[in-house]
């Protein structure tokens, strides 16, 4: 092979440096003061100009690469600084500092997401929204401070706004804004016109069904938002939203299709029924927490983040039909474009969907022009444009997983596939091995940062998952599309799609149970960057044959050396264990073994995932007896985790019936599994194998104490 031929196979990385610089500089600018980001943009901009000036006089090695990296840094820093300045501008900052109660005018940005809450507490929803106006209520007002700044009604001073020129003045009914030097607006009714992003936390059920684009007003209290994004405030809403008008027809259509997909998946078992919408459109609202934990443990999280893989599956199916019909490149690209637009609307423009759609659109241009090698520059251009357009994407984990998975498929998978084929591996097997390995290798740093572990089972788990992804995605899309006109057909398609989804659940479940399948690793951004640096260093070093051979020898030595240790010391739990106290946070969950794979469980802790994880780790497959000492949330919240995938023969509870919400929760869960429930008192006992379970207290009821449920615990 000639050098020219070899070079023709090299990916086009000319825009990769610019994309990476834009991304990293935007991410850094989200956490630093605006002045620091502006100064960075100015200094780097001068450096970029100097590099270009030098290049005009004489050749500079890798000059255009250096210039593009500097330009990306300028773009990322400047764009983010502008958005952060808007985020931190007055008067929203003043109202947030004062925790002001306001009536807010909002436009919904994304589907409401349920937040995990303790049993007995109302379901909380998180809603991303655009803030278009606020009106302080309950007599709260903001008046000009000395020197033209903004002063809250209680006398605290707030710096003058230099972002939007608004100059609030005191008004008997709230806030009025008179024209200021910067072009402010006065509203006689006290309304302040603003443009900012907010996150709404609400518990009223009417927030659940809101669609993106819906205009509404809501009352609540403005609270400070966390750093690292562009949200100016957190609105703790009280009461239901008041809707104004309707969302766009596209959002309404998408809402109908997504609701139809959820209805079609309703009759399926909880695990595949909750996973299928996540695989298809990234809707994880019904995803079982245990499945989510298993996906994290096995490195399969990227499957429920809509990415280029989902777009590729949908477009690939359309392209296959178009090619079968002998359509030309431009017609094929047009048909794929229609499918792409429909899929983006169906999946909603979340960060990963926006990136996947942009990547798909640029890829279609490359397809129509007959230039498939343009895929890598298309990805780099998409990342650059999207981060400049919305710098908040730079800190989004789903966006990172989507970009990295696609990068692995474009940059690593072809080389690894060819290397395996040269080593004698059949073409199909080489492709099947290279694709999941490349995607997992690229996503590894982000997954490690999120989970604090490095998965050793990720590659085999993703390899086993490959055959099920495309059928599940296509059947799920089909179920969503036909659901408005043929509900029975949608239910049948969802039932078919539930089988490959169930396979993915099984792969994740048993992969998560592999002993020592996950190694501890530093979590957070530092852990992700550390593993990323190690991965890049390994890729560079592995270009040498000696390094590859050494890595193979070390891996084999670790496996062979660990095998005798695993045979002698079987790991956790140790042989002969007789009691285990699970680490579930606040609350309790205690296991007492009564036979192989069987244990008495005393309480279930506050969360289902933690309880299930503990029982799995101890190999508990059956629960002859579940004892509930009392009905507080931190003792019964994990009940579903104990029941998940296990037989439970009986439940015994305290005779004290309070709190009622906890007792009702236990009774409903047991009734759903047809498990008998018995309230027991002192003197009750049961022998299970060699273990005697006996109630020894309390000897009598205690009333009027500081906590009757606690003091009447078994």
Automatic annotation (TrEMBL):
Which stretches does the entry tag as region Disordered?
A: 136-177
Per the record, GO CC terms? plasma membrane
Where are the annotated coiled coils located? none
* Principal cellular location given in the protein's record: membrane
Q: Where in the cell is it found?
A: Cell membrane
> Keyword Transmembrane helix, does the record have it?
yes
Instruction: Give the Pfam families listed for this entry.
Output: Competence, Lactamase_B
Q: Which residues form the Metallo-beta-lactamase domain?
A: 584-678
Annotated keywords: Cell membrane, Membrane, Transmembrane, Transmembrane helix
Q: Provide the membrane topology annotation.
A: Multi-pass membrane protein
* Origin superkingdom: Bacteria
Q: Which InterPro entries match?
A: ComEC_N, Competence_DNA_uptake, Metallo-B-lactamas, RibonucZ/Hydroxyglut_hydro
* Sequence ranges assigned to domain ComEC/Rec2-related protein in this UniProt record: 279-542
TM segment ranges: 12-31, 37-55, 303-324, 330-347, 359-387, 393-412, 433-458, 464-485, 492-512, 524-542, 549-569
What PANTHER family does this protein map onto? DNA INTERNALIZATION/COMPETENCE PROTEIN COMEC/REC2, RECOMBINATION PROTEIN 2
Name the UniProt record assigns to this protein: Competence protein ComEC
């Amino acid at each position: 092979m000639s050098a020219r031929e070899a070079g023709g196979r090299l990916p086009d990385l000319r825009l990769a440096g610019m994309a990476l610089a834009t991304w990293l500089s935007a991410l850094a600018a989200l956490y630093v003061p605006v002045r620091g980001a502006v100064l960075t943009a100015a200094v780097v901009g001068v450096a970029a100009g100097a590099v270009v000036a030098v290049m005009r006089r004489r050749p500079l090695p890798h000059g255009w690469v250096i210039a593009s990296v500097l330009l990306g840094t300028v773009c990322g820093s400047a764009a983010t600084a502008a958005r952060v300045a808007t985020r931190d501008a007055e008067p929203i900052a003043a109202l947030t500092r004062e925790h002001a109660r306001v009536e807010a005018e909002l436009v919904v940005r994304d589907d409401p997401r349920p937040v995990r809450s303790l049993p007995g507490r109302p379901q909380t929803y998180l809603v991303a929204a655009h803030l278009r106006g606020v009106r302080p209520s309950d007599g709260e007002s903001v008046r000009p401070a000395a020197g033209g700044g903004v002063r809250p009604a209680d006398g605290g001073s707030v710096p003058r706004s230099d972002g939007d020129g608004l100059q609030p003045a005191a008004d008997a009914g709230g806030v009025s804004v008179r024209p200021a030097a910067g072009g402010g607006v006065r509203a006689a009714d006290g309304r302040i016109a603003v443009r900012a992003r907010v996150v709404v936390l609400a518990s009223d059920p009417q927030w659940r069904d809101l669609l993106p684009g819906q205009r509404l007003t809501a009352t609540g209290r403005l609270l400070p938002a966390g750093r690292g994004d562009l949200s100016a405030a957190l609105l703790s809403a009280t009461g239901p939203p008041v809707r104004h008008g309707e969302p766009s027809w596209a959002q309404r259509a998408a809402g109908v299709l997504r609701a139809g997909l959820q209805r079609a998946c309703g009759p399926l078992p909880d695990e595949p029924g909750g996973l299928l919408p996540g695989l298809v459109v990234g809707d994880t609202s019904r995803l079982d927490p245990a499945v989510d934990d298993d996906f994290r443990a096995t490195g399969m999280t990227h499957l429920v983040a809509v990415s280029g893989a989902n777009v590729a599956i949908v477009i690939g199916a359309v392209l296959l039909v178009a090619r079968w019909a002998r359509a030309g490149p431009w017609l094929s690209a047009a048909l794929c474009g229609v499918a792409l637009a429909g899929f983006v609307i169906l999946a909603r423009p979340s960060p990963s969907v926006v990136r996947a759609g942009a990547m798909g659109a640029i890829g279609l241009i490359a397809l129509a022009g007959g230039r498939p090698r343009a895929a890598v520059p298309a990805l780099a251009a998409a990342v650059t444009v999207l981060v400049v357009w919305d710098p908040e994407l730079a800190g989004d984990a789903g966006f990172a997983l989507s970009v990295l998975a696609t990068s692995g498929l474009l940059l690593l998978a072809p080389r690894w596939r060819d290397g395996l084929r040269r080593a004698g591996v059949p073409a199909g097997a080489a492709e099947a091995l290279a694709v999941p390995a490349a995607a997992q290798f690229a996503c590894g740093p982000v997954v490690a940062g999120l989970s604090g572990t490095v998965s050793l089972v990720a590659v085999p788990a993703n390899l086993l998952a490959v055959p099920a992804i495309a059928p599940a995605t296509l059947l799920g899309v089909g179920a969503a599309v036909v659901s408005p006109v043929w509900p029975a057909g949608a239910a049948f398609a969802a039932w078919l799609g539930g089988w490959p989804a169930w396979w993915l659940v099984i792969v994740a479940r048993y992969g998560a149970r592999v002993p020592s399948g996950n190694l501890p690793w530093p979590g957070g951004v530092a852990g992700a960057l550390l593993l990323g640096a190690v991965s890049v260093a390994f890729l560079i070093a592995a270009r040498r044959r000696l390094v590859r051979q050494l890595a193979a020898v070390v891996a084999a030595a670790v496996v062979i050396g660990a095998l005798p240790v695993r045979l002698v010391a079987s790991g956790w739990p140790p042989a002969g264990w007789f009691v285990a106290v699970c680490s579930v946070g606040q609350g309790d969950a205690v296991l007492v073994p009564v036979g192989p794979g069987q244990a008495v469980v005393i309480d279930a802790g506050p969360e289902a995932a933690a309880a299930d994880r503990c029982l799995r780790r101890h190999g508990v497959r059956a629960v002859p007896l579940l004892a509930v000492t009392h009905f507080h949330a931190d003792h019964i919240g994990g009940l579903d985790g104990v029941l998940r995938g296990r037989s439970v023969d009986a439940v015994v509870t305290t005779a004290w019936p309070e709190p009622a919400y906890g007792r009702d929760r236990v009774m409903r869960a047991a009734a759903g599994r047809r498990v008998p429930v018995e309230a027991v008192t002192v003197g009750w006992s049961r022998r299970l194998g060699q273990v005697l379970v006996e109630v020894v207290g309390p000897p009598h009821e205690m009333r009027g104490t500081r906590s009757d449920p606690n003091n009447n615990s078994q």
